[in-house]
Amino acid sequence: MSKIEPREISPAGYILPFHRYLWRLVPATVIATIVVIASLVFLQKRKPSEVVVTFNIAGIDAQRVTLAGDFNGWDTESLKLKKQNGLWVLKLPLSPGRYQYVFVIDGKNWLADPYAKDYVDSGYVPGAKNSVVDTTRL
């Protein structure tokens, strides 16, 4: 005859072998969950962080100054600068990259930023320049 192994009995009188087996799986389950979550966090494509660029221009006698560039499809109305103590200012979050832009004075005069570090030909008006900002170098 085969020998019958005694089983552990809880204080409440329940037989515990299956529960003991499940408790042995808990550490492995926790470790597997941590590995999966960590791999999802570290392997996902990270969105490039944005850089806040401050555009400003002084000495402009205008009713309205806006900013147009390739970051907004050259829209001359959407990005309005605010006048603060004689200085027109706009803070704009941009993704890493190189952008062309100009200031638009009263909706008609396009003006390159006199303090820009780089310029390129506008490609539309002979001799006209677009200012360039490179957010990867800020």
What can you tell me about this protein's structure?
- The protein contains 1 helix and 8 strands, in the order H-E-E-E-E-E-E-E-E.
- It has a domain at 51-137: Immunoglobulin-like (Sandwich).
- The longest helix has 27 residues, at 17-43.
- By secondary structure, the protein is of the alpha+beta class.
- The strands form 2 sheets. Strands 2, 5, 6, 7 and 8 form a 5-stranded antiparallel beta sheet that branches. The chain has a 3-stranded antiparallel beta sheet with strand order 1-4-3, with no helix packed on it.
- Strand 5 (98-105) and strand 6 (109-111) form a beta hairpin.
- The mean pLDDT is 86.
- The termini are far apart.
CATH class value of the domain at 51-137? Mainly Beta
Number of contiguous helices = 1
Query: How helical, in percent, are the residues?
Result: 10-25%
Main sheet makeup: 5 strands, antiparallel
Mean pLDDT: 86
According to CATH, the fold-level topology of the domain at 51-137 is Immunoglobulin-like
Q: Which strand-content bin applies to the residues?
A: 25-35%
Task: Give structural attributes.
single chain; 138 residues; rod-shaped; 5-stranded antiparallel sheet; Immunoglobulin-like; alpha+beta
